[in-house]
UniProtKB/TrEMBL annotation:
Naturally occurring in which organism (per UniProt): Bosea robiniae
Start and end residues of each Outer membrane protein beta-barrel domain: 11-216
Subcellular location: Cell outer membrane
PANTHER family (UniProt xref): BLL7405 PROTEIN
Signal sequence region: 1-22
Domain of life: Bacteria
Keyword field: Cell outer membrane, Membrane, Signal
Stated name of the protein: Outer membrane immunogenic protein
Chief place where the protein resides: membrane
Assigned protein family: Belongs to the Omp25/RopB family.
Pfam families according to UniProt: OMP_b-brl
Transmembrane segments annotated in the record for this chain: none
Length: 216
């Protein structure tokens, strides 16, 4: 019996010594990798406000004539809006107000027209390619048009509120907050009756402008 007990104690000792030796061996596991930071994906959703500047050119239409003269000049102002991104599509609403120096002079000595400000309220629909977004836009336009007919000493200064604007553009998010872009708009401010009769004067023009916005 004693022999069996001694043999059992010896066996337990060998097992314990082997376990202790195994515990002292170096681990075969590699070093634990540090977690990798993944910045959140950019989103176009949010309010924005910004400024723009560019060039406009167009036509003066009067008394049934297709084109009495041309007008061109500087435009510049500001925009405010909101975008909402759904998957790759972006929808939004934007309002802008522009100072302008769109003047026709006195074309053919008949009619002189000048637009000194205009504005639009437009819907926008775009497709996001990460930080790039081409878009189309359209909506309501309004503005102030000064008209003169030198031959009869007539002049008037009227607001046009029944116009429209359509166009498109491309924007790029330089950072998560700074967005740069270019935009084209065709603006038609509609016609107004002059001299209390059937004589109408209308203004339509194109605008190309650079934009810079801050997204909140």
């Amino acid at each position: 019996m004693k022999k069996y007990l001694l043999a059992s104690v010896a066996a337990l000792g060998l097992v314990a010594a082997g376990a202790a030796s195994a515990a002292d061996l170096p681990s075969r596991k590699g070093p634990i990798a540090a977690p990798v930071y993944m910045p959140p994906a950019f989103t176009w959703t949010g309010f924005y406000v910004g400024a723009n500047a560019g060039y406009g050119w167009g036509n003066v239409n009067a008394g049934g004539f297709a084109n009495v003269g041309d007008l061109d000049g500087f435009v510049g102002g500001g925009q405010i809006g909101y975008n909402y991104q759904m998957g790759q599509f972006v929808v939004g609403l934007e309002a802008d107000l522009q100072a302008a120096d769109l003047s026709s002079g006195n074309n053919l000595g008949l009619v002189g027209v000048k637009t000194d400000y205009f504005g639009t309220v437009r819907a926008r629909v775009g497709v996001a390619f990460d930080r790039f977004m081409p878009y189309i836009t359209g909506g309501w336009a309004y503005g102030n048009v000064k008209t003169s007919i030198p031959a009869i000493g007539f002049s008037t200064d009227r607001s046009h509120t029944g116009g429209f604007a359509v166009g498109g553009g491309l924007e790029y998010a330089v950072t998560n907050n700074i967005i740069a872009g270019v935009e084209y708009l065709y603006v038609d401010l509609g016609e107004k009756n002059l001299l209390g009769g059937g004589t109408k004067v209308g203004t339509d023009f194109s605008v190309v402008r650079a934009r810079l916005s801050y997204k909140f």
